[in-house]
Amino acid sequence: MWRGVLAAQLTIALFIGAAQAADKKAFSVGVEDYKNWLPYSEVRNGAYGGLGKDILDAFAKHMGYTFTYEIYPLKRRDRLFVDGLVDLSFPDNPNWVVEMKKELKISYAPVLEFTDGVLVRPENLGRGVGRLKTLGIPLGFTPYPYQQLMSAGSLRIEETSDYDSLYEKLIMRRVDGAYMNTRIARHYWTKIRKLPHVPVLYDPDLPHASGQWYLSSHKYPKVVEEFRRFMQTNRAEVEELKKKYNFISSEDE
Questions:
Q1: What pTM, to 2 d.p., does this model score?
Q2: What domains, with CATH codes, occur in the chain?
Q3: DSSP assignment letter at 236
Q4: Of 122, 178, 209, 248, which cross-links 136 as Cys (Cβ 3.0–4.6 Å)?
């Protein structure tokens, strides 16, 4: 008898939980705390902004959802996401922190293209990977194309808390190259600093990684699939948002 009662209670609880999930309209989005990542994102006076947020907000408005952006250091954000303490993650990628996420079934939908590559001083452009002895990276980053060199001990990694400090290290010759998102670097030097001569340049001949920044969730795959459809059916709206930030899809080719 008691088994039957417990089974009935469990069934009711599962039904209620499923109904609540289906009716959920407010979601937390775990994002990264890098301050100056335009055009993709920025954190100014504790508020999250940028092209990625604008696209996600357009989707949320279309669906009648409310997104709350929770800002964390990269590694903490990843841990909270895996532990289910944030509903959605942006940016994410199936190739990032694979070991941490291996037990989860995660849904992904592409948002924005990226290229992570190495910036060098102009006099070192095109001189090859052999001259890289110290590579600067943003705190929390993994320079995947350079892992073999790192494992062999021929490349030293120096982490830096923000992009501004990383640019300074490269300009002051404290690192030989800086591994970062090339669009973010281009936006900084051409749109923010607006210098006539850019002191650091992306070297496309050095190993680099290209792909997509994704929206992801293992708690709400339905929301991710809805977002995928939104991106497919509202391309004109998304392209207008990209123009606002001078985000050109082919510029890293």
A1: 0.86
A2: 25-112+212-244 (3.40.190.10), 115-210 (3.40.190.10)
A3: H
A4: 178
